[in-house]
Amino acid sequence: MSARDWLLADSPASRWQASAGRAYRVAAALMRNPLSVLGGAIILVLLLTALLAPWIAPYSATGQNLSARLLPPSAAHWMGTDELGRDIFSRVIWGSQITLTIVLLVALISAPLGLLVGAVSGYFGGWADRALMGITDIFLSLPKLILALAFVAALGPGINNAIIAIAITSWPAYARIARAETLTIRNAEYIQAVRLAGGGPIRVIVQHILPLCTSSMIIRVTLDMAGVILTAAGLGFIGLGAQPPLPEWGAMISRGRTFILDQWWVATMPGFAIIIVSLGFCFLGDGLRDVLDPKSEGRS
Amino acid sequence: MVEAKCEGSSLRKRVILRCQVLVSIEGFFVSLEQPTAAATPLPGSSGRRLRRGAGTALSFAVTLFLTFIGLLAITFFIGRVIPIDPVLAVVGDRATQAVYDAAKAEMGLDQPLPAQFLNYVGKVLTGDLGRSVSTGRPVIEDLSRFFPATFEMATLGILIGVALGVPLGVTAAARQGSWLDQAIRVVGLLGYSVPAFWLGLVGLAVFYARLRWVGGPGRLDIFYDGLVSPVTGMILIDSLLAGETDIFLNAVTHLVLPASVLGFFSLAYIARMTRSFMLDQLSQEFVTTARVKGVPERVVIWRHAFNPIRVPLITVIGLSYAGLLEGSVMIETVFSWPGIGNYLTTALLNADMNAVLGSTLVIGAVFIVINKVSDVLYRLLDPRAR
Predict the structure, then answer these.
(1) pLDDT top residue among B36 and A111
(2) In B11-109, which ranges are E strands?
(3) By CB distance 3.0 to 4.6 Å, which of A143, B292, B314, B366 could disulfide with B326?
(4) What burial class does residue B107 get, using C-beta atoms within 10 Å of its C-beta: 0-12 exposed, 13-18 middle, 19+ buried?
C-alpha cells in the first residue's frame, strides 16, 4: 500500500490517519490553484528568510559604514544603502524576523481570544451572549487603525505595545465567526451526547466546539495577516512601532522619506517586501477559503 | 427564526464592516435572503410595516448611543492608563503635596472612576475636549480647523473610487475569466497589500519629483498660501468663492495625487465587491431568462443585473468612505496635508493626549455614524428587507 493510498483510505484506521488524510486532501487541492501555490511559496520564503537571516544577509542589519552612504542599488548592495551606509537588502532580510514575529504573536493573541469570546457567547446565549456581542459590535464599528494608534500612544511606542494594540483591535472579527459557528453546532446531536455523558460546558466548548471553528478561523486569520502587516508597518512608519535601529520595514520607509526625491531606493525597497509578503498571505488565504469553504469558490 | 435573523445581520456587518477583509459573499446573500424572504409580511400589512419602521429607528438610536458610549469608554480608559501622571504634567514635579492635591481635586481626579467617566461624557457632549499641549488651543477648535481638509481629500477620493471602481467591477463580472477580469482581481488584491503611505511616497517621487505633473506636499504652493480667507475650510470651494481661478487650479494639482492614492484603495475594494455582487446576480435565473428572450447583453448587465445590486453597493461605498477617513491618517503625513490625520500623528509624537483622544473621538464618531447609517439605508432601501 503506497503512502497515498494510506492517506486517502476510505476508512482510516486511526484518528491520526484521518487527520493526515484530510491535511493531504487540503494540500492537494491547494496545489491545483497556481495563486495559492504562489502564496504558499512566498510565506515559505518568508519563514526561511527569517530563520536563516544570519546566513543569508550579506551585511549586518545595524552595522554602519559612513563611507558608503546612500549608494544606489549595485552588485555589492542589491537594494542600495541607507543614510548610515547600512545595506538595505540585509536590513530587509533581518526585518522579515520582525514581521513574522508580529504576525505570529497577533494571531496567537487575538485568534484564541476571539474564539473563546465567540464560543462562550454562542454556547451560553442569553445575557452572556448579549453583553459579549455588544462589546464585540462596539469594537467592530470603531476604526481599527485609529484605535491601535490611540492604544500605542497610551502604552508608549515600541514593538511589543504595537503587537498588543493590533491584537486588541483584531479579536472581535474572530469572535463573530466563532459565535456563528457555535450557534450552528451547539444543538447538534453529538454535543447532546457529550452533555448526557456528563461533559461540562468547558469540556464541550474546548474539546467539541472549538476544533470545529478552526477551519473558518484559519481562513480568516490568513486573510487578515495582510492587514496586520500593513498596520504594523504603518505604526512603524509613524514612529510608534519598532524603534530604530531595528530594521522594521515600515520604520525603514519612514527613514527613507527624507530622501525619496533623490535616493528613491531607501524608501521603496522595504515597501516591495511588505507588498510581496501581504500578497502572499492574500493568495494563500483566498486559496484556503476556496478549499475549506467551497461555497464561495471563485467569487471574490 | 429570530436567531437566524440576528445571524444574518451580524454576518452582513462582518462582511462589510471591515473593509479590509473579503468574506464569503455567498454566505452574505444566503443569510440575507433566507430570513428576509421568510419574514416578509403579507401584502397589505402597512400598519405592521410602520411599527417595524419605528422599531428599526429605535434600535438604530439605541445601538448608535451604545456604540458612542463604548467609544467614549475606550478613550476614557486610554486616557487613564497612560503612564504619565496628568496632575504632575500640570503642576510640575517640584510641586508641594498641598498644591498637588489641590490640582488633583480641581481636575476631578480624586473622584471615583464612574464619576470621572460621567464627568468626561458631560464634557465631551458640551464640546470640551481639553486643551492641546502643542498648539495651546482648545482641541475642538483645532479639529474644526483641520477637519475640512481631510473631508475634501476623502470626498474626492471616494468620487474617484466610485467612478472607476463600479464600472471596473461590472466589466470584470461580465467577462469573468478574461485577462481584464484577472487584472481587476490583481488590482483588488493590491488594494489589500500595498501600504498607503508607501504608495503616496512613490507617487510623490514619480509624479512630482520626476514628471512634474502634480504639485508637491501641502495644499497650495507656498506663494499662494493664506491668500484665500477660509469660509468652508475646503480650499477648492473657498478659492472658487473668492473667484481666484489660479489658486483653484493650483489647489487641484496639489489635491489630485493624495486623492488618487486614497481613490485607489476605495477603487480596489469597490471593484472587488461590485464584481462579486454582479457574479451573484448574473448566475440568477432571471438573467438567463432575459438573455433567452434576446435582450441585448448591455441591457442585461446594466439593467437586469446591475439594478438589484445598487442597494448593497450603497453600503459598500459608505463603508469605503469611512475607511478613507481612516486611511487619510497615513496619507496626510506623507503629503503634509493639514488635515485631522496629520494633527493626530503630530499629537501622537508629542504625547499630546488631549489632542490624540479628541481626534480619535471625532474620527471614531464619523466612522460610527457612516457605518450605522449605511447599515440602516440598506434596510430601508432593500425591498426584501422591508
Answers:
(1) A111
(2) none
(3) A143
(4) middle
Binary contact (A239, B326; C-beta < 8 A): no
- Residue B51 CA to residue B341 CA, distance in Å, equals 42
Contact present, A265 and A108 (Cβ < 8 Å): no
The 10 Å CB-count burial string (b at 16+, else e) for B15-29 is bbbbbbbbbbbbbbb
Q: Which of B205, B329, B333 sits opposite A264 (nearest CB)?
A: B205
- Verify whether the Cβ–Cβ distance B201 to A260 is below 8 Å: yes
Residues A233 and A235: their CA atoms lie apart, in Å, by: 5
Beta-carbon contacts of B329 under 8 Å, excluding residues fewer than 6 positions away, are A145, A146, A149, B340, B341, B344, B345, B363
What span, in angstroms and rounded, lies between the C-alpha atoms of B285 and B292? 10
Specify the DSSP class assigned to residue A186: T
| Cβ of residue B152 closer than 8 Å to a chain A Cβ | no
Q: What type of residue is A250? A: G
- The pLDDT tens digits of the residues spanning B122-166 come to 888 888 888 887 788 888 988 888 888 899 999 999 999 999 999
CB A174 within 8 A of CB A88: no
Residues 6+ apart with CB under 8 A from A24: A4, A7, A8
Mean pLDDT lowest for which of B38-42, B55-59, B251-255? B38-42
Q: CA–CA separation, A69 vs A87, rounded Å? A: 9
One-letter-per-residue 3-state SS of A109-144: HHHHHHHHHHHHHHHHCHHHHHHHHHHHHHHHCCCH
CB contact under 8 A, B202 and A268: yes
Selecting from A143, A150, A299 the residue whose C-beta is nearest the C-beta of B276 gives: A299
Which helix (DSSP H) or strand (DSSP E) does residue B272 occupy? helix B245-282
- B357 in contact with A, Cβ within 8 Å: yes
Q: For B30, phi and psi rounded to 5 degrees?
A: -55, -50
In terms of DSSP H, where are the helices of chain A? 3-7, 15-31, 34-51, 53-56, 88-124, 126-140, 144-155, 159-185, 189-196, 201-203, 210-238, 249-256, 265-292
Looking at the complex, does the CB of residue B14 fall below 8 Å from at least one CB of chain A? yes
Task: Give how far B224 is from chain A: nearest CA, Å.
Answer: 23
- Find the helix packing angle between B353-381 and A144-155, rounded to 10°: 160
User: What grid cell was written down for B244?
Assistant: 481666484
| pLDDT level of residue B48 (50, 70, 90 thresholds) | low
Q: Could you say which of B189, B195, B364 has the minimum Cβ distance to residue A146?
A: B364
Name the residue in chain A with its Cα closest to that of B269.
A300
* Full DSSP string of B103-140: HHHHTTTTS-HHHHHHHHHHHHHTT---B-TTT-SBHH
Q: What interface predicted TM-score (ipTM) does this complex get?
A: 0.87
Tell me the residues of chain B between 101 and 140 that have a Cβ less than 8 Å away from chain A.
none
Q: What is the pLDDT of residues B192-232, one digit of tens each?
A: 899 999 999 999 889 988 888 888 788 887 777 777 777 77
* Cβ neighbours of B213 (radius 10 Å): 11
Cβ neighbours, 10 Å, residue B373: 15
CA dist B382 and B310 (Å) reads 9
Q: How many beta-carbon pairs below 8 A join chains A and B?
A: 200
Torsion over CA of B117, B123, B127 and B130, rounded to 10 degrees? -90
Neighbours of B153 (CB within 10 A): 28
Paired strand residues for B138: B131
Cβ count near B262 (within 10 Å):
29
Residues contacting B184, CB < 8 A, separation 6+: B168, B169, B171, B172, B271, B275
Determine which helix (DSSP H) or strand (DSSP E) holds A261, and give its type and residue range: none
Q: Quote the CA–CA distance of A294 and A30 in Å, as a whole number.
A: 12
Burial (CB < 10 A; 0-12, 13-18, 19+), residue B12, is buried
CA B45 to chain A, closest CA, distance in angstroms equals 31
